[in-house]
């Protein structure tokens, strides 16, 4: 592993934007540590530290960093699709769209499907043995929640070709249209009370942030300070004057969430974060130019998705072991709780590393056979994956045998149905594209 990482790091071309790779690692790492820190676990269940100490919700304005990951995704997707479009122009017998989907999703869907199958089998076994109460039941519900991120990322990949085409024609106008859509949705939602319209902002908000990545790929984010100031001022104004909560992550029991579905306030938050990381681009690029640090970034990028998928499993495993050993957990946010926090995070990090060692091979798929691409087949596959993964993130694995469901937009979805859609979509994506050389990824 070490020799492979060293070889990849040394082979990195000078033209590669290493700062983007650093942002990808830092954003996912921040989310992981944030989840470990926010978990307020007691013998009665799992709560949220931000609900226990509401004053800490202001920290989400810096630590809710998923917009940065989606921004980086837009940058990478633009470069990848343009490369495929040049190598496989329309009319050469293959679909660049299908090839793009397969190339971008193979490293994402394989570890995701393994995670889903392992936890699905574990949940079935637990329930057949009559378990599922206490922390076990909570775990069966919680472990799938990070899959919402996978679902949104699938949508971004699927929409990259048409949105990139709009970007190449209209530039900032395409971004502005997505922002206008997010504004309209919130007006219809909060002013006119139109039902279900809020779910459209899963597309408008996150795709607008993704579109900023296209602009960066073309060198058109020239005033990051203005972008950061506008976003921060906009978010502050909306929270102060509107129905938007202070927290930029979802809170238990809240009437309005900035996250699910996303709001205009979260979009402003994304603008502020993108502007902020662009302001740090120079120092960040110099930092990641150091060979040792760059090797660390390469290594982390190689297992980032596996670590993200399994980090909640590790955290819940640590708490489960403590409870099984008869350890009395301190009250969340108490002095004893804060004193133990570094040890709990270290234990969760160690267990995550062990899980990564066990499952990292699925994030490095073998080369695919060459075959003609099918755009419609790829589109159908990614659509099924999208709804399956999002549905599973909402329903979880608890109540698997009882037919427990959750509402995805306006449709009730059970865990078996969600898993079936995700697996069928993955199968279609795997068979829709053709092999892509390593330098095209």
From TrEMBL:
Keywords: Acyltransferase, Membrane, Transferase, Transmembrane, Transmembrane helix. The chain crosses the membrane at residues 21-38, 58-79, 112-135, 147-164, 171-190, 196-214, 226-244, 264-281, 345-362, 377-401, 408-429. Residues 18-356 form the Acyltransferase domain. One of its GO terms (molecular function) is acyltransferase activity, transferring groups other than amino-acyl groups. It comes from the Bacteria. Pfam families: Acyl_transf_3 (PF01757). InterPro entries: Acyl_transf_3_dom. The keyword Cell inner membrane does not apply. This is Acyltransferase. It comes from Streptomyces tirandamycinicus.
